[in-house]
Design a protein that fits this description.
Blueprint: E1 3-8, H1 18-25, H2 31-39, E2 43-45, E3 48-49, E4 61-66, E5 83-86, E6 90-95, H3 112-119, E7 133-134, E8 143-149, H4 152-163, E9 168-176, E10 183-192, E11 200-203, E12 208-219, E13 223-230, H5 237-244, E14 272-280, E15 287-291, H6 296-310
Parallel strand pairs: 8-14
Antiparallel strand pairs: 1-4, 2-3, 2-4, 5-6, 6-8, 7-8, 9-13, 9-14, 10-11, 10-12, 12-13, 14-15
Helix pairs in contact: 1-2
Length: about 300
Amino acid sequence: MNRRNVLTVDNGQKGVRLDVWLARQLKEMSRSRIQQLIRSGLVTINTHPVKESHKIKPDERIEVNIPPPQTVELKAEKIPLHILFEDDALIVVAKPAGMVVHPAPGHNSGTLVNAVLYHCPDLGGIGGELRPGIVHRLDKDTSGVIVVAKTEAALSALADQFKRREIHKEYLAIVRGVLAPPGGKIETMIGRHTTDRKKMTAMPKKGRLSITRYETIEKFEKFSLVRLCPETGRTHQIRVHLAHLHHPVAGDTIYGRRSSCDLPVEIARQMLHAHKISFRHPATGKKMEFSTPVPADMTRLLDYLRSIKGG
């Protein structure tokens, strides 16, 4: 059954676009979702359908009919989650390496979305569908903190923080070689690779502006432990930027060396970990920060590098 909202325009709100005005009144919904409802004929003024560009007038009676979220073809799966925080608006999870974030061809099950659907059967729904809101992504073989929105309002608020670069993310990576200078800013354009469409590449002119700040934490003979803070959120940004500096992430067979046989210990993935994230809570505005320790495989490699360095 549709949820029905009846609103009346006040005298001081003449001339505002209908979709803009409704987004201010129905804060749990995004403007794009409201536009979708208007185009579907589910928003009427004095019982008549209208366009989203309609300029509202005092005393108009606006009726919004919101259908219940539709069930999408996503299967809830009982997969263990390491939950760092959860409330009605969002859930913060420590994602293990090897877990895909969102179902895609070849990865229809076992993903973070499948796990969240099982853990949160009372999702508010995103865009009219019963699904969690993926605010940002981590590559399959990147471990670390990830935030998932449980409502459309939370997704929209967090997405706005990302656009305004108000969300701070900190990664830890073990990279090949020693960076010179040991800290600084990497600023390039990043675009789709011209011959391998699954890869991204740093480009001199085309693509989208991408910025990553980095700081060397610890140096070894042939490797370094580096802290990285991306200021933009492009696909594979950190891996592409480090490869651009000729210091690819250890174990990265796409942007680094195809073989890891020359590594001091056996590793099965790129040594990249989303260590920390901070943002404002989408409902309360409270500053929040979450972190998760370096995982066991990265710790083993670091312990070995330290033992060689110490010897």
